[in-house]
Amino acid sequence: MNAVWCLFFLAASLPVLAAPSADEIISLVVVRDKQLSERRKAFDYDLDIIREKLDSNRAVTQTIEEHQVVIGDHRPDYGTRSTTGNPDDEAKKASREEPFELLSIIDHYTYSLEGEEMADGVLCYKIAFTPKPDMPYENREEKVLNAVSGHIWASMKDYSLIKNQGSLMRPVPVAWIFASLREMEFQFDSMQLPNGDFGPKQVQYRYLVSIPFTSLHERDTRKMSNYRLTSTDPPAH
């Protein structure tokens, strides 16, 4: 038997490793995300917040921009979100806050592995998620997320979250009296940090809230850039 046939039979006799299931991948993504979140505390970064008010055709009618420097694990505090406050004031707070924490309620979804795909230059598992029915919620954000479906892209190398996007499947009543979230879509993209980890690059979400006699239609973009080793003290106010 020649060497080629020996190699063929050897390969055929080796066990075939099964690809991880979608649920297993998501569990590993959660573990990895917690690790990377802790390691990102070693970095300061620039944060640009762009609020774009939209008309019914999604044309921009007003743009509001804000620049911040985020210091290590010192996250700015914008106060408690009101349940009955002015919608525009609440929207301003929402644009400044950290984006939806989808990975914190992973048990609220059903997952399916759709294959492999490049995302932001990284070879990833592409996983679809859909909400399970009648899941509980502790706040307005979780109530919205219980009605969101979309996709997650996770690095095949180390399960880092590379990309995430989703949209609202049905209208959701929100805290403002008689208000309803009619539309919502979001996308998260990552970038490689100075230490080689992947971290947030941009989060963008668009939402349409119906309010009696009017509506609030807005697209918010949070851009993170210039990650560098943290300074020792938070910025002076």
Summarize the structure.
The chain has four helices and ten strands.
Descriptive notes:
This protein has one domain. Helix content is 19%, strand content 44%. It contains four helices and ten strands; from the N terminus they run H-H-E-E-H-E-E-H-E-E-E-E-E-E. Strands 1, 2, 3, 4, 5, 6, 7, 8, 9 and 10 form a ten-stranded antiparallel sheet that branches. The longest helix has 18 residues, at 22-39. The protein is globular and about 50 Å long. Mean pLDDT is 82; it is low at 3-16 and 78-85.
Blueprint of the fold:
Blueprint: H1 3-13, H2 22-39, E1 43-54, E2 60-70, H3 87-96, E3 109-119, E4 122-131, H4 140-145, E5 148-155, E6 161-168, E7 172-173, E8 180-192, E9 198-211, E10 214-229
Antiparallel strand pairs: 1-2, 1-10, 3-4, 4-5, 5-6, 6-8, 7-8, 8-9, 9-10
Give the structural class.
alpha+beta
Output mean pLDDT.
82
The count of DSSP E runs of length 2 or more, i.e. the number of strands, is: 10
Q: How much helix, percentage-wise, in residues?
A: 10-25%
Counted up, domains total: 1
Name the beta content range: 35-45%
Roughly how many Å is the radius of gyration?
21 Å
Distance between the termini: 78 Å
